[in-house]
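=== RUN LOG ===
request id: a7f3
mode: sequence -> structure
chains: 1
length: 412
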Amino acid sequence: MSQKTVLLIIGGGIAAYKSLLLIRKLQQRNISVRAILTRAGAQFVTPLSVSALTGEKCFTDLFDLTDEAEMGHIELSRAADLIVVAPATADLMAKMAHGLADDLASTCLLATDTDILVVPAMNVRMWHHAATQRNLAHLRQDGVRVVGPDEGEMACGEFGFGRMAEPDEIARAITNYFADTQRGGPLLGKHVLITAGPTHEPIDPVRYLANRSSGLQGYAIAAACAEAGAQVTLISGPTNLTVPEGVDMVRVQTAREMMRACEAALPATVGIFCAAVADYRPKQKAVEKIKKEKGGMGEIKLSENPDILKTIANHPDLRPELVIGFAAETEAIKSHAVTKKKRKNCDWIIANDVSSQSAIVGGVMGGMENQVIFIGGEQGDGKRDPKPESWPPMSKQQVAARLVQKIIDHFG
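=== RESULT ===
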């Protein structure tokens, strides 16, 4: 790969120090870096440290006449092969979503026709705020790519989503972006949204309701779609799996978080809903750990979680062109899946037997193999749905490859 150039915009936040590490990671991958440091970012890292690492002047001021004469903000914003905003604060994302341009960073972001990747970093409550999620959805609709945020402890002492992704993960996403644009593939230009893994519905700070899903099937599909050239957004519940190469990862815990993340990821060409989402959650979460000495857990009242597949398949404005559901059943596999397909309004559905009587040794959920029934869409001209296809037992990677080939065939 010939040397590429990234314009790195460093926003304000304690996570700005990670951007210095990111510069090094990119240079190790033969990617050169120019940097813009916002006024808020300069409270955490210095122009001198940024300049020393990039080997170039660190740009800071929109109205620096010398810079405008030598490299104006228009040229600066368009000379790079990719613009990366890291950390992307709530303020920067709001400016991008609403087209504001009151400093060098926001002006360059508005004046560019170059692709943009943002790496959010902020307090967990700021991240979950409705305004931030609206802005995120707007940016995704505009074609902006997103990496992170991760879950963890923050500098403010709170815990949750909002931690900036690690430099290695960001550098991998940037490398994948350049590889995808050069490699092409039958799904190039398609955005595929995939859900995977279980959801965890908290009872108290240490206990939760969940299921046995490992996430392996969804991750395998994400990897296969990326290899076929698609832009892939993988929304994953808690797993121990490695993020596939070329995939934009969004990590969530609960069904409601997954619902919000799916809506924020739209528009998408294809939606593949592989996650084993918990149907119910505790109506109330205990603030402190429930102690046996104080009467124990008692009765847990449940509330119904949002139906992600049905919601996206019936979205009034942003329904994907192809919606694919999964049906994990323990009996009457085929008939239940056909009914679910119609009830949810999805185009295809993949049914599998997750009972103890399954032909897969060790079971499907948590195992390495799968055996599925593929139920496709209508043939047109008033014909009935095509006959379901029973696929033989195979690895989850093979199931993914076969499904992706069907998606490729579907789009011609």
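=== NOTES ===
Residues 379-383 have pLDDT under 50 and may be disordered.
Residues 168 and 399 are 29 Å apart (CA to CA).
=== END ===
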